[in-house]
């Protein structure tokens, strides 16, 4: 069994995304059961999602469109996570000043994302992970 996002299927049938947009159309590359999805997607500062894998680019871009992953509300949610991550990084850097250790901070924050103490992942956690890895 796989939990999926219903993507506006009840609220706004004209602007579906995720599973509602896909329907029964098969994926060409992206599949939530395959962890490789996390390694082939990037996130722009405006919250847009894009392919970072040249080898499978056409299939991945097809799936991004199929799932309507650049739907405005999804972009806004991702942008909020990106902005929050940037502020947290800046806050920690300013607070620690000369003691700032980017690699230690990055490791600690990535660990919190990957192994949350509550065992509940934050919404759009992969966006935060992407931002941290860019540090």
Structural key phrases:
135 residues, 50% helix, elongated
The largest pleated sheet is described as: 2 strands, antiparallel
* Contiguous helical run count: 6
Beta fraction of the residues? under 5%
Biggest sheet: strand arrangement: 1-2
User: What is the number of E strands?
Assistant: 2
Q: What is the mean predicted local confidence, pLDDT?
A: 86
Total discrete domains:
1
Poorly predicted ranges: none
Assign a percent range to the helix content.
40-55%
Shape: elongated
Q: Roughly how many Å is the radius of gyration?
A: 16 Å
Distance between the termini: 35 Å
Could you state the order of secondary-structure elements as H and E? HHEEHHHH
Structural class: mainly alpha
Would you write up a description of this structure?
The chain has helices spanning 18-22, 37-40, 57-66, 72-96, 102-114, 125-134, and strands at residues 41-43, 49-51. The longest helix has 25 residues, at 72-96. The N and C termini lie far apart (35 Å). It has one domain (18-134). The protein has 135 residues and is mainly α. Helix 4 (72-96) crosses helix 6 and helix 5 (102-114) packs antiparallel against helix 6.
């Amino acid at each position: 069994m796989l939990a999926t996002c219903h993507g506006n299927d009840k609220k706004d049938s004209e602007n579906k995304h995720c599973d509602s947009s896909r329907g029964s159309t098969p994926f060409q590359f992206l599949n939530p059961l395959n962890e490789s999805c996390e390694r082939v997607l990037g996130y722009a500062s405006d919250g847009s999602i894009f392919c970072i894998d040249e080898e499978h680019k056409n299939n991945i871009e097809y799936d991004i469109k199929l799932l309507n992953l650049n739907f405005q509300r999804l972009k806004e949610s991702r942008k909020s996570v990106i902005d929050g991550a940037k502020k947290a990084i800046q806050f920690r850097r300013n607070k620690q000043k000369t003691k700032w250790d980017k690699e230690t901070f990055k490791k600690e924050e990535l660990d919190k994302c990957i192994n949350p103490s509550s065992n509940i992942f934050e919404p759009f956690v992969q966006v935060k992970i992407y931002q941290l890895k860019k540090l």
